[in-house]
Amino acid sequence: MNTDTKDFINQWLLKYQTSVFRYERISAIVASTLSIVFVIFEYGFYLEQSDERFIRNIVPVLFIIFISNYALRTIFTNYRLEFIKSTWFEGAFLSFITLLGLFHFFVGFEIDRATNQVYQHVVYAALTFLVMIEITKVSVLISEYKIKPSTTFIFSFIILILFGAFCLMLPKATIGESSMNFLDALFTSVSASCVTGLAVVDTGQYFTAQGQLVILLLAQLGGIGIVSFATFFATFMSQGVSLKHKTIIQDVLSSEDLSSATGLLRKVILLTLGIETLGAIAIFFSWGDSLQFNSFTQKVLYSIFHSVSAFCNAGFSLFPDSLNTSIDAIDTTRFDNGIIDIRHMYGLHMVIGIIIIFGSFGFTTIEEIFSPSKIRERWRSPWKKYSIGTSISLYSTIILILVGMLTVFFLEIDQLRQDRSFVESIIASFFQSVTTRTAGFNSMDFGSMKPPTILVMIFLMFIGAAPGSTGGGIKSSTFYLLLLSSIGIIRGQERIVVRKRTISDENIKRSYSIFMFALIYNLLALFILSITELDNPKIELLPLIFEQISAFGTAGLSMGITSELSSIGKVVIIMSMYIGRVGTLTLALALSSTVNTNSYQYPEAHVMVG
Questions:
Q1: What's the whole-number average pLDDT of the chain?
Q2: What's the CA gap between 158 and 30, in Å, rounded?
Q3: What's the per-residue H, E or C state across 402-439?
Q4: What b-and-e string marks burial along 526-546, b requiring 16 or more CB atoms within 10 Å of the CB?
Q5: Burial (0-12, 13-18, 19+ Cβ within 10 Å), 26
Q6: Given pLDDT bands bounded at 50, 70 and 90, which one contains residue 185?
Q7: Minimal CA–CA distance to 458: which of 383, 373, 518?
């Protein structure tokens, strides 16, 4: 091709570039919308065969639109080679879909029905993935608007919650003819998205496989944050990441450096998926002989569900009484021997407990301790200490676990020794201490625990997990700084010093702000709950306080009153779970207006305190 012809083609492409890109965007939006609708209809509703055939005949057209759009963008872009390099994954994925479609077109009628069903699942999964790519592109564009990063973070959770509630209300999400009502669906969606674990229904018995998958995805997206996943896809798909996205990720992961936030995010998500995969494998081999699944696939799915739920500190379990279940199952369709004895599977308890600890450490701590590069660095320099944030997270986690463990063991020794040996009682105490701070699983009956134990559990739930983790509460580092600051004030210290490093006044003020917001909100919520719930003879004050702090700390533990709550009570608990997850300070910053600073200062005034 000579130069004149090449220039003519480039000028022609440039002439129609704007129109083609506009068509590409409109068609992508239409195709994405139809894809979402078709996936919802396919997996959410019971359709007639004619409707299923209609949808499945339209789906290939949607793939053709996505493939054509990518081809048009490649042809009409100014720098084709750079575009192909930057979007290599999307191009490779679309190429794979094209080959798969051609293969099915020519030999699809010769394969058996079971294989054809698997193919349909793959098709809808691919369609969902393409929609996620389009959503990522839109999220990058939205980030250009002048919206506070904290506001974006908060509304991303609201969108996730509402979409999850809609999916849980679909007919195929629940067992039986009637769908879940809106308030209960909203409660469950908030509990999953905010990784709490409080449930108004039995997750394993009430929801179908589709409903359980929705809860699992909500817990996964809510645990790391939907914006984090969008940013991860944006970087992975080379869509670019805005400064606002980096700011949000820095806040979510508690990263000290803005420039390294997205790099840390990639490591965190890969570590998360790695830990969840290893956890699922360990859980798979931890199921006891007394629990015999009906199929290998079911055993795998149960292992994955509980691994993700544990690492994200979601607390959802597919058993009637979480890990305290020990009954003869009425429903024998899921288990060959009709027996569910999870209460005495102590190997399973230890595995889930370890996964929970990983999830409660905080992503920066996980990256610093378990990242291969950091491990090699410590191997070369064994004298090098962890960062202050990691040290606080690590040591506070160990101390709080020991406090809870010793409390449960000594105060509940009578309950523990009823059907457990000494070693088994130690394991049960350890597990209950680990899960109390934020995870939501239980291997003991909280309704029969003594009031002193309940008070310690409330204290642990209020503190919660480490910053930048999947857990809630005011965070262990906040409590640590409050403690150091209070001791320092009593001793007359001008500065708070940790390992020869001065803690900034901003950090101290932030800790006090978080504590005050949390304290005031919980007192207000308890005041409302005491008005609306204490008329119910089945609800007493201590279980109500336990329920509220559990919701705010996203711990997900209950003394058995969740299903007894009134509509107003459920709304209060919903708000508590949401505020506990997004953080009181993040919510306050999003709702507050910008304060103008002044260069002048008023004279000091003395106020009597104490």
A1: 81
A2: 24
A3: HHHHHHHHHHCHHHHCCCCCHHHHHHHHHHHHHHHCCC
A4: beebeebbeeeeebeeebbbb
A5: exposed
A6: very high
A7: 518
